[in-house]
């Protein structure tokens, strides 16, 4: 009983609660950014322009090239499209299910997360989520670079590209003691 009491006191210490809340916020943010980078950006790839202030998409191509990859789940269909385009690996996509499950656990059981000494935000999954956001940022930037003449004839360090979503997660991770050595 003494061991449990010590663990519970440590878990409920104000600095521990604060750290858990920031880590939970970072994880939830990473999950939402992944969804945007995957689902929204794949759809935006099929953007054809504007008409009377409305964005126009090639929905026919999008349906055939993306939605039909998994008609019941747009996230999985978009992930498959990204794997086919070498933006993500099948291993990264497989980890998304663990990330989704842990995100749901954090979002729906936050009070339990705050008081259970044996439960914490999984840093391994947070790092995997951040790495996926980094990889997707490089992929989308490489498309922009390849299609914008301003970048022609320039030597690009693709590994040095840091998208806005990645910079946000990098900053949030630094707040909880995760730095470039961990990422």
Describe this structure in words.
- There is one protein chain.
- This protein is mostly helical and 183 residues long.
- It has one domain (2-42, 87-175).
- 67% of the residues lie in helices and 5% in strands.
- The chain has eight helices and two strands.
- It has helices spanning 2-12, 14-44, 59-65, 74-84, 90-108, 110-115, 123-147, 164-175; strands at residues 47-51, 54-57.
- It has a two-stranded antiparallel ribbon.
- It is elongated.
- The model has no long low-confidence stretch (mean pLDDT 91).
Tags for this model:
two-stranded antiparallel ribbon, 5% strand, 183 residues, 8 helices, single chain
| Total helical segments | 8
Largest sheet, strands/sense/barrel: 2 strands, antiparallel
Helix content: 55-70%
Q: Whole-number average pLDDT?
A: 91
Distance between the termini: 37 Å
Radius of gyration: 20 Å
- What is the assembly state of the chains in this entry? single chain
Short note summarizing the structure:
The chain is mainly α and 183 residues long.
How is the secondary structure organized here?
Blueprint: H1 2-12, H2 14-44, E1 47-51, E2 54-57, H3 59-65, H4 74-84, H5 90-108, H6 110-115, H7 123-147, H8 164-175
Antiparallel strand pairs: 1-2
Helix pairs in contact: 2-4, 2-5, 2-7, 2-8, 5-7, 7-8
